[in-house]
Amino acid sequence: MQYMALIYTDPQRKPVPGTPAFDEAMKRYFAFTAMLKEKGAFIAGDPLKEVETATSIRVKDGRVETMDGPFAETKEHLGGYYLFDAPDIDTAIRYGAMIPAAGHGTIEIRPVMSIG
Amino acid sequence: MGDVAGSARACLDRTLRTERGRIMAALIARVGDFDLAEEALQEAATSALAHWGRSGLPDRPDAWLIRVAFRKAIDRLRGAARDGAKADALALLAQSEAVPPEAIADERLRLIFTCCHPALDEKSRVALTLRTVCGLPTRAIAATFLDSEPRMGQRLSRAKAKIAGAGIPFRVPEPEDWPGRLGSVLHVVYLIYTAGYDSPAAADCDLCAEALFLARMLDALRPEEAEVEGALALLLLTEARRHARTDDEGMSLSLDRQDAARWDWAMIGEGLGILTAAVARPGDGPYRIKAGLAACRLRPFGPDWRAILSLYDRLLAIEPTPVVRLNRVVALAETGALSEALLELSALAGALDDYQPFHATKADLLRRAGRIEAARAAYVRAITLSARPQDAAFLRKRLSELPDDTACGG
User: Fold this and answer.
1) What's the complex ipTM?
2) How far is CA B32 from CA B19, B133, B156, B169, in A?
């Protein structure tokens, strides 16, 4: 089954580029991605640019409405994702727990619905 | 004729009451789907009434139900396979039908680990375990949660849908996940027990008995597992005193005021035997320690407070929670270190301000320290927070026994 791991983080608590904590986190991200690839489980995974760059879109009566930022007033924002293969949720949880952001943010694991 | 039909109904009811968990576990292990297993068993039960009424009872009604439910499940999957997707499941199922029912393994360990999976909400874990492993009807489970039957039915459906949809596997966890997952299972068993302990004796079903059934089942399916033994010992040592914990008026009795002749000494002996085996095994764990605590309170010449204090120190290393700290304070006071205990108690005030036992303990310690006015206030607060009338009655009695003289208080 394919699982999407959505990475939610609080920008205030994220490691800052240029600090040893940031370098350590990057190293762990690379190692995690390499591990998934070695197992043949990796499908995709990327960080997203800051939430300030986000635009939310709705279509009402055929008209496109755009809004600056996401709708929800939450502390944690979607900051990146992984898409991987796992035989079951136990493995998916184990993978999710290896994502460095799990230490200061929240990883949401969702099975991908297969269509067709 | 009526007799034959009647005995078929009685036999079916008896089999489903005592063997439903085992049958469901065997079915889910092969079908891989809770709903399909449940529907197939339902159909098999209907056909059992017709067949057993006509041709007499089978030697092994449970095996009969499993075999027929397998076939019903295959029929359902055949219907679905025409529409497309389920051909693999069907092939797998057709294979496993060849296994003679007598050789079907007891799959309830896999079943309870699946029902207690940490990806499910805690209340759903409890409900699903009671429904699927214990075989309690949804109505009875709803009643214990003070929920309506349809709402509980929805909760159970959502949990089963998540198991199927999110890929929660039907298996005993890997060794690396074992301690945490076992902890989740034992916590559910413990929650079921305490729900039974706190509910009135006349409740619809005896949840304490269900919890003991589950603990015994786990011990039988996974022998020599120290934390399972610890949990079973804890339940036995608690259950043995359940009927002695209130007086004739239903008022709570502290341990030293209970009539030890009303304790179930055979059950205590069994619990102590299991605990002895558990503590001889390597490592440490919360249930072993809690069972040890229960055992220390039962010593023939009163509780052994020094041993209790050191057990709380060990428990605190594993579960550093305010509630464990509070219990340690009680033990500390009992060893004679009253002022030290009061000092540690005041450090917990912030975390436990809405917790009835905190104020009951505070009242008791202040009373013993001679600070009568402060004790009075703590009793009043504890009475306000008491959920059970017998606890409030106990505290009111203590409050009324306080000396009127406030000269020595403060």
Assistant:
1) 0.84
2) 19, 16, 17, 9
